[in-house]
Amino acid sequence: MISGTSELADFVTESTKRFDNDSDAQQQLATTLPLSSIKQDDFDAVFYPGGHGPLWDLTKNTDSIELIEAFLQAHKAVATVCHATAVLLNVKDASGDYVVKGKAIAGFTNSEEDAVQLTDIVPFLLEDELIKRGADYQKTADWQAFAVQDGLLISGQNPASSELAAQKLLAHLSA
Fold first, then answer.
1. What SS3 state is found at 96?
2. What is the tens place of the pLDDT at every residue in 80-96?
3. d(CA 35, CA 47)
4. What is the CATH number of domain 44-174?
5. 41 vs 71, 106, 130, 175, CA distance in Å?
6. Does residue 3 have a pLDDT over 70?
7. How many CB atoms lie within 10 A of CB 83?
8. Element (H, E) at 175
9. Torsions phi, psi of 149, nearest 5?
10. Among 2-16, 41-55, 69-83, 141-155, whose mean pLDDT is lowest?
11. What would the pLDDT profile of 136-163 be if each residue is shown by its tens digit?
C-alpha cells in the first residue's frame, strides 16, 4: 500500500513513475511473503525501503531483527534508506553490541523530519536514536541524495537517496 503523501509531486521520481506503470512489479508487491517466512539462505542481500512505517512496524519486530542478524552473520549486506534505517536500531552483533555502534550510518535527519512537520508525531527521531546507539551518524544537506557503506551496512539518508543506496548494494553484490 502506498501512503497518500508518497504520491505528492515532491516525492514522485522517475523510478516511482516507472513503478506506477509496471503491472508486473505492482503484482509482485501485492503478493509479497510475510516477513516471518523470509530466510537469509534464499537471498544474497536485503534492502529495506523507506517510509515512516518502519518506525512503528519494524524497529522492535523480532522477525526483522533476527533476519538482519542472520544476514550479517552470513556476511551478507543489509541496505536501508530513509526511515527504514530504524530497522537497525535493535539489531545486535555476536558480542551483544548494537550493529550500528561505531559504523557510518545515514537515515532521515531531524531537520528533514522537522521540515515535513512530523517531529511531534513520529515515535522517535531516527537521527537521535542512531547516535544514542553509538552510530557514526552521517548526513548531508536536507533532501540531497546521500548514502554510506560501512562493511555490510549500506544506508541512505532520505527518499532522494534510494537509488544511490541501491547502486551501492548492487556494486557490493558484484564485487
1. coil
2. 999 999 999 999 999 99
3. 13
4. 3.40.50.880
5. 8, 27, 28, 19
6. no
7. 27
8. none
9. -130, 130
10. 2-16
11. 999 999 999 999 999 999 999 999 999 9
CB 105 within 8 A of CB 136: yes
The SS3 of residue 92 is strand
Q: Are 96 and 66 within 8 A, CB to CB?
A: no
CA distance 89 to 55: 10
Angle at the Cα of 108 from the Cα atoms of 153 and 136, rounded to 5 degrees: 50
- The residue type at 175: A
Contact 157, 109 (CB under 8 A): yes
Across 13-17, 20-24, 133-137, 151-155, least confident range: 13-17
Confidence of residue 1 (pLDDT cuts 50, 70, 90): very low
Pairing label, strands 147-150, 153-156: antiparallel
Residue 136 DSSP code:
E
Q: Which three cell numbers stand for residue 61?
A: 519486530
Determine the Cα–Cα distance for residues 130 and 18; give it in Å rounded to an integer: 32
| CA-to-CA separations, 144 to 75, 148, 155, in angstroms, rounded | 30, 13, 14
